[in-house]
Amino acid sequence: PRSFGTARNALGQQAAQLALARGSEVVHASDAAELAAATDRAVANRQRLLMILGGDGTVQAVVERLASLPADVRPHLFVLGGGRTNVTASDLGNRGSVLTKLEAALRRWHDGPVLGSEVRHLLQIEQPPAPARHGLLITAGWIDHIIRRVHNERALSSRTLRHGRAGTSWSLLKVAWAAMLGTTEPSFDGLRIASTDDGALHEQVRSLIATTLQTRHGIFKPFVERGEGCVRFTALAARGPRMWLRLPWLVTGRFRGGMDEAHGYFSGRCDALRVLGLSRYTLDGEELDADPARPVTIRQGPAFTFSVL
Fold it and tell me: Contact, 173 vs 48, CB < 8 A?
C-alpha cells in the first residue's frame, strides 16, 4: 500500500475491492516484517498463487523469503507494477493498466483458461560468511550512487516534483548533466570484475549492472548478446565525452566499434561474476552494504515460476 503507484489515485483500494469481489484473499503488507509474515502464512496455507501489487523492492522481499524453500513448495507469483519503476513487472509484461490486468488474471485463475507461466532464476549474491541475498537486478558503482542520490533527494524534499511521477527523471537529468559537464565526480568503490568465461575488466569499474531478467520490453537493454549463462551483465570503466556520446548504444545493447574490454566496456552472459572491492550496491532498488575486503560472487540462484497473461 505504500508503493508509489499503489498509493496514487486509490489504486490499492480499487485492486483490493476487485480481488475481494472475485473471492480472493487480500493482504495489506506495509513493511518487511509484514511481507515476511504474509509470505510465511501463504506457504503454510499451501497457496498456489500469490498476486503482488507493489514495487520492485516488494517483489524482492517476497522472493527473498521464498528462496530457501524447495521449488515444489513455492507458490507461483503474478507481479503487477505498483511501484515507481516496476522493472520486474515490466519484464514479465505486467506493467501498466494494473486493474485491467488484475481483473483478467483473476478471471482466468478462477474460471479459465489457465494463466501462462515463465520460469526465471533469481540472482544469488554471495559474500560468506554472510547469508546469500536474492533478487533480480543488482547495480553498483555510479548507478548505485545515482539511485541513492535520487532516494535521498526524495526523502529530504517536500516539493511535489520530487515525489511525483517525473521526480526520478528530474533527479537523473540533473546528475547526468552535471557529470557531462565534469562538475561532479562521486567517489567510487575500487571495483574489479571477472566472469566465469574468463573475461575480465582490468580497469577500475565505474558502473555495474547485472540481472536475470530478459529485458524484452522497452528500449532499455544494456547487455550484449554474447556468451552463455543466466546472468546478464554490463560493466563500464570508460569515461569522458566519448562515453557520453556512446550512451545511446550502451543503454540499448548495440555496442559498436571501440566498445569492448580494451576500451572499458564489458558485457554479455555468464554463470557467475566475481566482484572485488564492493562496499555498497542496490538490489531491486533496495540499498545494501558489503565488505569491500572480501570478494562478492553474483551467480544464478533458485528458479521461480511467474504467472503471466
Answer: no
List, edge to edge, every strand of the sheet that includes 265-270.
265-270, 231-236, 207-211, 137-141, 280-283, 286-289
Element housing 73 (H / E) = none
The residues pairing with 72 across neighbouring beta strands, listed in sequence order, are: none
Instruction: Give CA separation, 252 vs 203, 216, 217, 246, 249, in Å.
Output: 23, 11, 11, 10, 5
C-alpha pair distances (Å), 24 with each of 6, 166, 254? 18, 34, 44
How much is the pTM? 0.86
d(CA 117, CA 59): 17
Digit-coded pLDDT (tens) for 25-51: 999 998 889 999 999 999 999 999 999
CA distance linking residue 95 with residue 217, whole number of Å: 10
Q: How many residues does the chain have?
A: 309
Going by DSSP bridges, is the β-strand pair 231-236/265-270 parallel, antiparallel, or unpaired?
A: antiparallel
- Cα–Cα distance, 30 to 8 (Å, whole number): 15
Closest CA to 116 of 97, 136, 101, 100: 101
Contact status, residue 77 vs residue 63, Cβ threshold 8 Å: yes
According to DSSP, the β-strands at 272-276 and 296-308 are antiparallel
Q: Which residues pair with 210 in a beta bridge?
A: 138, 233
> How far is the CA of 276 from the CAs of 191, 201, 233, 291, 297, in angstroms?
5, 11, 15, 10, 9
* The three-state (H, E, C) secondary structure of 86-133, written as one string: CHHHHHCCCCCCHHHHHHHHHHHHHHCCCCEEEEEEEEEEEECCEEEE
Residues 101-112 have pLDDT tens digits of 999 999 999 898
Amino acid letter, 141: G
